[in-house]
Structure of Phage protein:
Amino acid sequence: MIIQQLQNKDERIVALETQNATILAELAGQKKTNEEILEKMKRLFPAEFS
């Protein structure tokens, strides 16, 4: 019984770690996109960003 519970917790931990890695990768991609948008905005509207 306890062994099974520990195995279940281990599986849940692995799943959460995978989910966390996916979320972090998505956030990194979003940050890059935001930076690219900001750079384009700076080029289009230099007076607004000086």
About this structure: Helices lie at 2-44.
